[in-house]
């Protein structure tokens, strides 16, 4: 085969290839070996799927529905190029009895559109908006594998890891943020065996590149009057985006801006003293000096006094996580959480906020029992020793690695102190 990313070489018999692939799939699921002529990209994907604990009789889980799904889609960068996807692929999908699908970088389907009868068939395997189709969730499939390997890829028939998906063929290509190169998600065409053709792979790749070009045009330089935004999760020194500038704040200034952003009504000097300092001997003069330096750093107009307050709303990443948790959008909240709030801060009010935010997200993750979300938390620096999350993960994904790590943590807890 000249191109390993294309499912069928010219002249191949699709029916015969399906029979060979089914035998190969059975061999892999029973013996763990991959016989020829399975493509290397598929063999590697099968191995990743097995290591993730995916079973050949599994099914996709729907994670986002109704308002939660709508809110997440509205915020996603690919929402801005959906009209382009529909223009370029909608007629092709409808006329060919195919589906146009778009997923995020975690393989979660955001849109699934196309021929009504094909959609009804796809509904039966949960190929629907809000369902997670990452490799770690449902094994080898075009959108999930495309974001996993960051390459356009076709998946033909029994190359799919889960048996109920094997009647389908799909081709997908990743879409990148044109500024950062980060994978935003993938665009996919799903249907029957007729899609196992080099043209379908080239088609979705061209559509993905067109989307990236349009995103580049839609992202002009940041306007000077953009609303201020504060990034304080996972970093000891917050960053404020203000009037096109990025201002790195010292630790005390970071604490002040986090607190003031949460209290648009303002805080008195005494309230700020109690919130920031454990040592009651700190004088109001010390606090006023910090506020004067902060006002000088920010420039005129943003920091007002009597009481101390921000003259314009400042959006913080911590507030985004809180809002999503309050709305029940656990997946979106976890995606926005990049670490504890100002982890090095010992200011009493910041410590309380940090614990409340982390505990609320932990409880939501444990409650939703999503193995991918639990694994992301458990393997993050702040979750490596979180025994409750590891227990929840072991209940839904009891792999040898997870069980071993949980046993080690529980042994540490049971060990005598001293």
Automatic annotation (TrEMBL):
SMART domains: Trans_reg_C. Residues 244-310 form the OmpR/PhoB-type domain. SUPFAM superfamilies: C-terminal effector domain of the bipartite response regulators (SSF46894). Pfam families: GAF (PF01590). GO terms for molecular function: DNA binding. InterPro entries: GAF, GAF-like_dom_sf, OmpR/PhoB-type_DNA-bd, Sig_transdc_resp-reg_C-effctor, WH-like_DNA-bd_sf. Keywords: DNA-binding, Transcription, Transcription regulation. One of its GO terms (biological process) is regulation of DNA-templated transcription. The keyword ATP-binding does not apply. This is Transcriptional regulator.
């Amino acid at each position: 085969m000249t191109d390993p990313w294309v499912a069928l070489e010219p002249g191949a018999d699709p029916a015969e290839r399906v029979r060979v692939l089914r035998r190969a799939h059975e061999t892999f699921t029973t013996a763990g070996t991959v016989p020829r002529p399975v493509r290397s990209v598929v063999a590697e994907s099968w191995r990743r799927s097995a290591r993730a604990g995916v079973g050949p009789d599994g099914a996709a889980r729907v994670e986002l529905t109704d308002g939660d799904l709508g809110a997440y889609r509205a915020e996603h960068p690919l929402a801005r190029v959906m009209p382009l996807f529909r223009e370029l692929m909608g007629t092709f999908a409808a006329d060919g009895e195919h589906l146009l699908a778009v997923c995020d970088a975690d393989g979660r389907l955001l849109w699934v559109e196309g021929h009504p009868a094909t959609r009804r068939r796809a509904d039966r395997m949960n190929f629907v908006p809000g369902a997670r189709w990452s490799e770690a969730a449902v094994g080898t499939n075009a959108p999930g594998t495309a974001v996993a390997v960051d390459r356009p890829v076709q998946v033909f028939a029994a190359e799919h890891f889960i048996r109920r998906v094997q009647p389908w063929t799909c081709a997908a290509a990743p879409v990148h943020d044109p500024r950062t190169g980060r994978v935003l998600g993938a665009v996919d065409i799903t249907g029957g065996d007729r899609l196992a053709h080099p043209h379908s792979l080239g088609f979705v790749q061209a559509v993905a590149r067109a989307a990236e070009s349009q995103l580049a045009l839609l992202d002009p330089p940041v306007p000077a009057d953009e609303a201020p935004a504060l990034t304080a999760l996972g970093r000891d020194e917050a960053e404020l985006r203000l009037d096109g500038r990025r201002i790195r704040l010292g630790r005390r200034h970071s604490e002040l801006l986090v607190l003031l952003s949460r209290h648009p009504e303002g805080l008195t000097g005494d309230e700020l003293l109690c919130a920031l300092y454990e040592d009651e001997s700190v004088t109001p003069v010390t606090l006023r000096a910090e506020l004067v330096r902060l006002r000088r750093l920010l420039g005129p107009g943003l920091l007002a006094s009597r009481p101390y307050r921000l003259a314009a709303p400042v959006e913080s990443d911590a507030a985004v996580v809180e809002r999503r948790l309050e709305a029940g959008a656990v997946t979106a909240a976890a995606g926005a959480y990049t670490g504890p709030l100002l982890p090095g801060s010992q200011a009493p009010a910041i410590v309380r906020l940090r614990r409340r935010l982390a505990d609320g997200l932990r409880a939501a993750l444990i409650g939703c029992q999503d193995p991918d979300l639990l694994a992301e938390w458990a393997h993050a620096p702040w979750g490596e020793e979180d025994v409750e999350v590891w227990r929840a993960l072991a209940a839904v994904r009891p792999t040898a690695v997870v069980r071993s790590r949980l046993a080690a943590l529980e042994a540490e807890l049971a060990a005598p102190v001293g």
